[in-house]
Amino acid sequence: MQKTILFFCFLFGISFSADAQSEVSINRPFASGQQKTVSKARSIALTNTVLSIGSGISAVAFFDNNTIQKTGAYLTLYGIVGGASTGNFYAEDYPRGVIGMGARAVGTILMVDATREVFGHRFANTLNVDNEKVSLTDTKMLIGEGLILAGFIYNMMSLNTSVQEYNSGGRNFSINVAPTVVDDKVAPVLTASLRF
User: Which keywords fit this entry according to its UniProt record (predicted)?
Assistant: First the structure.
């Protein structure tokens, strides 16, 4: 039992003192006084996408250092896969963010063989991918391109809903960790709330 309690404390990064009385919220509770804006969510999503891809490709193209090139390549992958979801994450709408990110991740995996055609030889060599010549009009490539584009559009279009739900307190699901006393020791208790 003690190992389980220590594991949860480590997992969530939360430490409680013996006299802790406050509740720590992982997800925002149903109502909050702090408002979020669609323009800021869109700005975060576009910045994380465009800046990550642009600086990553530049690092691969302009530097000969292997570490900088690998960092740039992974930064580009982050921009493609995760960048557009950061706007939803800003509005604490994790399901929509993960759906778009998942679509782009699958699309990116399908597009691995087109890395050389899209980003060039240095980029493909940095990641050690794309050993064959393919056409961007191959069926697998078209599906990958479609998934990446659809995931990006989905996240950008869903920002209004994500922000509105956050501002109205319209979350149907909330997870909280609160301290409670178990055998004279303070331990975190995970609680979930579902609103219909």
Answer: Signal
DSSP 83: G
As a whole number of angstroms, the distance between CA 120 and CA 123 comes to 6
Exposed/middle/buried for 157, CB within 10 Å: 0-12, 13-18, 19+?
A: exposed
Distance CA 144, CA 140 (A): 6
> For residue 180, what pLDDT is reported?
76
Please state, in angstroms and rounded to a whole number, the distance separating the CA atoms of residues 48 and 55. Answer: 11
Q: Give the pLDDT of residue 191.
A: 67
Q: How many CB atoms lie within 10 A of CB 80?
A: 22
pLDDT of 45 over the 90 cut: yes
Q: What is the C-alpha separation between 99 and 27, in angstroms, rounded?
A: 18
